Amino acid sequence: MLDVSVGRSEAMDRLAPYHRLILAEQNLGDYPLVTAEQVHGSEIASVFSVDAPFPPPIPGVDGIITQSRGVTLGIYVADCAPVWVVARDGSIGALLHSGKKGTELGIVRKAIQKFSSLGVGPENLMVLIGACIRPPCYEVDFAADILNQAHEEGVTSVHDCGICTACHPDRYYSYRREKGLTGRMLATLTLLP
């Protein structure tokens, strides 16, 4: 078993080969992996083309949106929610890191509005909220807030997996449960060629 009960950067270094192996096993290993710096904010970067297989994280952002095929978007989570926003026709997708602060700052709202500015209205979007910390393990139900924000922006196809990371030590890392000395799950989104 991999020991990740260390600081964030060391845990990420230890996990990197395993994350790459999982991508390869899913036939995504040949695609560049573009990640966000993740500052618990609400900024979203657009990705058009990528030259390096593992470029450095995009600074200052918690979300990435792309219309480019054959690029894998990635965010790392250990209690914050990974949120996928995808056009129903598969033409554009975004991956967001939304915890308490990012949700309060409206990262999901901003992403949905960005889709609209690119010609894809909320009625043509699907939103998925992944595993994240939830009550009673955490005092704020930001997953419910994400769900409400998506509905308020007009998205009708919203799914929340309903899983609490802190309640499942056998399956998920949890920053709160493990007091910061933990690994990170890699959430990905790829628009296949």
Describe this structure in words.
Helices cover 23% and strands 23% of the residues. It is of the alpha/beta class. The strands form two sheets. It has a six-stranded mixed β-sheet. Strands 1-4-9 form a three-stranded mixed β-sheet, with no helix packed on it. Strand 7, helix 4 and strand 8 (157-160) form a beta-alpha-beta unit.
Looking at this protein, list some descriptive labels.
single chain, 193 residues, alpha/beta, three-stranded mixed beta sheet, 4 helices, 9 strands, globular
CATH homologous superfamily grouping: CNF1/YfiH-like putative cysteine hydrolases
Under CATH, the topology can be stated as CNF1/YfiH-like putative cysteine hydrolases
Largest sheet: 6 strands, mixed
Ends apart, CA distance between termini:
35 Å
Taken together, the total number of domains comes to 1
Indicate the CATH class: Alpha Beta
Number of helices: 4
Percent strand equals 15-25%
Low-confidence stretches: none
Classify the secondary structure makeup into a structural class. alpha/beta
The whole-angstrom Rg is 16 Å
Summed over residues and divided by their number, the pLDDT gives a mean of 92
Task: Write the H/E string, N to C.
Answer: HEEEEEEHHEHEE
Strand arrangement across the biggest beta sheet: 2-3-6-5-7-8
Helix content estimate: 10-25%
CATH architecture: 4-Layer Sandwich
Number of strands: 9
Sum up the overall morphology in one term: globular
